[in-house]
Every structure is written in C-alpha cells, then in structure tokens.
Specification:
The protein is mainly alpha-helical and 101 residues long. It contains 3 helices and no strands. The longest helix has 35 residues.
C-alpha cells in the first residue's frame, strides 16, 4: 500500500512540476497581457499543487520527526497560498478575456 502511494505521489509531483514549467514558459513567451496572466495563473495553480503534494509526501510517507513536520507544514501553507492566488488570478483574467471579445 505504501509503495503504491509513493509511486502515485511521485508521478503526480512530476506531472504538476512539468505543467508548471510549461505554463511558465508559455506565460513568458506570450505577448498578450491577458493570456500571459492566464498562463501565469495556471502556473501558480500547478506550483501550489506540487507544493501540497510534496508536503503530503513529507507528512504521510516518512517518520514524523519535528523538522520533517515543520518543513511539510511550510510547504503545505505555501502550496495553499499559491493554489488560491492562482485560482483568484485565473478568474480575474478569464473575466478580462471574455469582456475583451
């Protein structure tokens, strides 16, 4: 069971990390400000999910040392902040994109 959980979390971390890099590249290369904001928001969402998954790996799959719990908690809070900031920015730029049409 623990091995399957490790593989699942590992695969999800890799997927969200690759998506974060992809959206970061698209955000930096796009000349349209609204699309740049949308790609940046998607990058924040993926980065937040990556940090949350890393925190879950730290907290669930390893022994509970104090340092590991503290680092996992910091990753979790940073991940939640990135996730919610990305969701807020995504809704903001989606409204701008629909009103520009």
């Amino acid at each position: 069971m623990e091995s399957a959980l490790q593989w699942t979390f590992g695969a999800l971390v890799i997927v969200t990390s690759v998506l974060s890099v992809f959206y970061s590249y698209r955000s930096r290369r796009n000349s349209d400000a609204v699309m740049r904001g949308l790609y940046g928001a998607k990058m924040n969402i993926c980065l937040g999910l990556t940090l949350i998954l890393l925190a879950l790996i730290q907290m669930l799959l390893f022994s509970g040392s104090t340092l590991r719990v503290i680092v996992g908690s910091i990753f979790f809070v940073m991940g939640l902040f990135n996730l919610f900031a990305g969701m807020r920015n995504h809704s903001h730029f989606t409204k701008h994109r629909s009103s520009a049409r």
